[in-house]
Model the fold of this input.
Amino acid sequence: QSTWDKNRLLLSGGDDGRLCVWDCEEFILLKKFRIKFSFLSIAIHRSGKLALTLDTSGSLKTWDLLNCTLEYSLHLKSKPFLVTWSPNYESFILVSEKVIDFRSSQNGESLKSVKISQECGKIQCFKSVTDSLFLAGTSKGDIVLGCLATDRLIEIKSAHETRVKSIDFCYDKKSLIFSA
Done:
């Protein structure tokens, strides 16, 4: 798992439990952290000052990228596989097999959670469309459009015969959804 920060940093995390912080201008390793567990997901804030990581122990960690230090670690009851920032970067999103959890970037507390129905299967991938709309691909081949404002699923469309592993959204006039 790696994330490219347009300002200058690359973060890479692997099964070996290493999180590497790279300077992209000269492509040199700035700092290497080691934890006991594999990394699942990395999300850099658009400010370039902090990053969030998830690992296989179920921990959410906040990293100070200016000082290359771990700020805090929170052990989560759920086992999310993805962390991402909301489009406005005022909150972040944790995605697990059945729940999409929107959390405050100030204190990490849950703001809202949206559950995916059992009929859809497990969430495989996720994409924010706006601050209130999101898309999720499921293990049963469905694409789900959900709304954070109403805490409900707006539409469920059968898209594939098997699981949807990747999903993206094109912000042009046609609002196209790509899935694989």
In short: The mean pLDDT is 86.
